[in-house]
Amino acid sequence: MSELLTGDLYAFESLLAGEERATLLRVREFLAEKVVPIANECWVRAEFPVDLVKEYAELGIAGLAYPECPGPKPSGLLSGFLALEMARADPSMATFFGVHTGLAMGSIAACGSAEQRERWLPGMSRMEQIGAFALTEPTGGSDVSGGMRTTARREGNAWVLDGAKRWIGNGTFADLIVVWARDVEDEHVKGFVVEKGTPGFTATKIENKMALRTVQNADITLSGCRVPEENRLRNAGSFRDTARILRRTRSGVAWQAVGIMLAAYEIALRYAREREQFGRPIAKFQLVQDLLVRMLGNATACLGMVVRLAQLQDEDVFRDEHSALAKAYCTSRMREVVGWARELLAGNGIILDYDIARFVADAEAIYSYEGTREINTLIVGRAVTGMSAFV
């Protein structure tokens, strides 16, 4: 199994010990053997490797964070490093896993009743049922909290959902879709678990993407979609509850950004050692070393940030501004790093065969989802000034 990450200059990974360290190495080995070799092919074809889901399930990591699921509960540090490791191998597969375990399972864990948690989470932890999270709408992204158009209307012992959602990861094949809708009676946002095959629910794959092509994003239409009252998440009564989910998943995106930075740095470092110009490896040129050190500096600074973020989570003093700052800062530095790596590879940097082109493209999606830089900046700005600048 691999030793410490090539780009982990300060050995943050060594903070993991015992079984957690062994779990990370086991996942790293799996990704290197099963995911990395097919990542470019899946990306080009925009197809999800469904056959790998069973093997992901055998890793036993999908439900580690939830009490309803078997196994020892992981530290925030292990959860973070797992997100990093998946993004380092393939940002698309990291996104698939994050949507399932973080957004979908996280919504049920945080907002579901005890009965609902027992009903859904164990099967989802075994990946027998795959989850999706439907919040963003065709006309509502950053303003979806106040501008949500998808509605929920109570009819007897059921709810009727009408509206549309967009950019829903796993949406084309998910078994359980957490849909957020505005109750027409009290105007509050509520959460519902819509099961695959429910009449009135349709999902259409979004085509022609330039990033995260392996992820099966969907346009979802809800037309008179009837959901039983037992599928309404009992503890989701307003958008504040939705925001609680995003607080934790944004920290996961920051970890993903670090994984992408480390992958880009490792690709560039390997290339610089092997590529020769003017009779010697380009790694011997000062300007090339400057690019490599800039990449390493960004990755190291951001890795230190997310490690501390994980500690705050474990100490239960984790706030919105903590994850918002990490998401905004780390994804911004990520864009710089993948750009520098592509620059170092010159023309070869735009060919998928050299890997970096996929990371450059995928970084654009990571930069935007789970809250744009501007929105996360406003969350932090409100916290530090005590004044809201939201419109």
From TrEMBL:
Location of the Acyl-CoA dehydrogenase/oxidase C-terminal domain: 244-384
Record InterPro entries: ACX4-like (IPR045008), Acyl-CoA_DH_CS (IPR006089), Acyl-CoA_Oxase/DH_mid-dom (IPR006091), Acyl-CoA_Oxase/DH_mid-dom_sf (IPR046373), AcylCo_DH-like_C (IPR036250), AcylCo_DH/oxidase_C (IPR009075), AcylCoA_DH/ox_N (IPR013786), AcylCoA_DH/ox_N_sf (IPR037069)
Keywords: FAD, Flavoprotein, Oxidoreductase
One GO biological process term: fatty acid beta-oxidation
Keyword field contains Ligase: no
Enzyme class: oxidoreductase
Origin superkingdom: Bacteria
Keyword Methyltransferase on entry: no
Sequence similarity: Belongs to the acyl-CoA dehydrogenase family.
Protein name: Glutaryl-CoA dehydrogenase
Species name: Nonomuraea thailandensis
